[in-house]
Amino acid sequence: MGSIEQTAEVRYTRADGLAEALRGADALFVYDFLSTAVPDAWHGADRLRWLHIASAGVDPVLFPELRDSDVVLTNSRGVFDDPIAEYVLGVILAFAKDFAGSLRLQDEARWQHRETERISGTHALVMGTGPIGRAIARMLRAAGMKVAGVGRRAREDDPDFGTVHASDRLAEHLPAADYVVAVAPLTEQTKGIFNATAFAAMKPTARFVNVGRGELVVTGDLIEALRSGQLAGAALDVFDTEPLPADNPLWSMPNVLLSPHMSGDFIGWRNTLVEVFADNFRRWTSGLPLRNVVDKTLGYVPSPPQER
């Protein structure tokens, strides 16, 4: 932020001082991307023109007053694409090769030979065809998996997915998937889309991976599907309540892999997020078009027409 401080007055604030810090400010950098402080402080935004958030998801700041305003919203799209794709490949391999089982046996000093699964030739269905979903598709295909996407419109000639199914036909394509990956943005259409009906459509050997938003999933329905054997396993990096409460049954389920919202957080990610904002700040002060402008009606940065 040093270069920005040479050309602008920079105010640093916590949530309780945000309303006052917003008064007279032209731009707001929401570095704490999990903060919900912006809506309550919005009355202080008397001349704000641009808001940037240090995440790909924008739901914490996409409240009605911002959506209806002339304030431009940008995000940090592109920072987490490959790291999250690596995470997804990692948990798929962890399931297939039963790494959790090996660690449990190692703790018990037990030599127990087992056979494991291949991932080559298995089917992955990725819901979300933005940059992160595309990075996931490319990495899984490189590992020999067959991948299809779920997006806003169906098509057969996608450069990364090959086939993309329309999101309103999701249930029809869940039964064929060995791995279902959720990476879609949170919108009114996607909230709670992975519910009891969706889990019932999956085959009992399938695994579910969520690296998108916790609210994409009806957590109680997922827990029941895992308990009943309707679903073989789940790898979860995001939750509808964070931190995940200590008494949540997901913690103790042997067929669940949990991580604390860190699938994209590589060493140096915080500095990279600041660099993304600094680059956009230079563009903004130079009168150049901003990168990663969010369509506030859709709730995300639109992809080129051929990738939607």
Automatic annotation (TrEMBL):
Origin superkingdom: Bacteria
Matching CDD domains: 2-Hacid_dh_1 (cd05300)
Stored SUPFAM superfamilies: Formate/glycerate dehydrogenase catalytic domain-like (SSF52283), NAD(P)-binding Rossmann-fold domains (SSF51735)
PROSITE patterns assigned: D_2_HYDROXYACID_DH_3
Span of domain D-isomer specific 2-hydroxyacid dehydrogenase NAD-binding: 90-263
Name this polypeptide is given: Phosphoglycerate dehydrogenase
InterPro entries: D-isomer_DH_CS, D-isomer_DH_NAD-bd, NAD(P)-bd_dom_sf
UniProt KW NAD keyword: yes
UniProt keyword terms in alphabetical order: NAD, Oxidoreductase
Molecular functions (GO terms): NAD binding; oxidoreductase activity, acting on the CH-OH group of donors, NAD or NADP as acceptor
